[in-house]
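2024-03-11 09:14:02 INFO worker-7 job=invfold-0412 stage=load source=structure_tokens
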């Protein structure tokens, strides 16, 4: 137990996600163990266990729990050791991943969000996460290669640097598009890249350019 009164609410959320097609028990367990209210402003805490995206300030959102769980399932398929997340935001996706992979690196371009996310993960005793304030279009070269990269904002086009930072056999999970976006899974093989469309999604944009 971690002292949050809401753990049964998180367990209920995990049950709801299993009803909408999330099958990986490791992912459902991580959702059940993670108090999503900690990642929201107090005024929104009562909505924390609904299966919806919610505002986190600075024009950004905490993603819908279903899509967090779905992307985490995709990341886990190849049992990755080192994972890179682009778009730390509230830190909720990072907290779920940190429970399931040995090493997580996460990049965010808005400093205030990064600071809050770091505090939240510390509070949950998750210490296997490295944080970077930077532009996710550049990935995080000094820690590459990664077994998986997950991007939690929609890129107008595929950032080439990210596939370069994948290990052979690694996968990039990324929403691509503007008004209409698709979640793509791109696997790096010995001979090149293999691309698969997972499903239609709706994310805030992956900003291309200077830091906030
Ligand atoms: N994974 C987050 C989702 C946050 S929304 C969560 O669980 O809450 C997407 C985040 O991507 C925002 O915080 C936004 O600031 C960040 N972002 C957008 N463009 C970025 C870029 N180029 N580099 C790094 N972060 C970026």
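2024-03-11 09:14:09 INFO worker-7 stage=emit residues=212
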């Amino acid at each position: 137990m971690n002292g949050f009164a809401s753990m049964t609410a998180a367990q209920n959320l995990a049950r709801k996600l299993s009803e909408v097609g999330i099958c990986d028990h490791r992912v459902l367990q991580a959702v059940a163990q993670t108090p999503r209210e900690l990642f929201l402003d107090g005024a929104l805490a009562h909505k924390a266990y609904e299966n919806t995206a919610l505002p986190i300030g600075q024009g950004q959102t905490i993603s819908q729990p279903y899509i967090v769980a779905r992307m985490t399932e995709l990341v886990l398929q190849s049992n990755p050791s080192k994972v890179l997340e682009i778009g730390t935001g509230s830190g909720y996706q990072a907290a779920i991943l940190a429970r399931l992979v040995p090493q997580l690196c996460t990049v965010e371009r808005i400093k205030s969000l990064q600071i809050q996310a770091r505090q939240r993960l510390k509070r949950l005793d998750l210490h296997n996460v490295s944080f970077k304030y930077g532009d996710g279009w550049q990935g995080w070269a000094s820690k590459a290669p990664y077994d998986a990269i997950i991007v939690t904002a929609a890129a107008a086009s595929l950032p080439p640097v990210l596939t370069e930072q994948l290990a052979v056999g690694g996968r990039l999970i990324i929403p691509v598009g503007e008004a209409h976006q698709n979640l793509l899974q791109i696997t790096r093989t010995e001979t090149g890249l293999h691309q698969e469309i997972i499903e239609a999604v709706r994310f805030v944009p992956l900003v291309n350019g200077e830091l906030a």
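2024-03-11 09:14:09 INFO worker-7 stage=report msg="The chain has a mean pLDDT of 95."
2024-03-11 09:14:10 INFO worker-7 job finished
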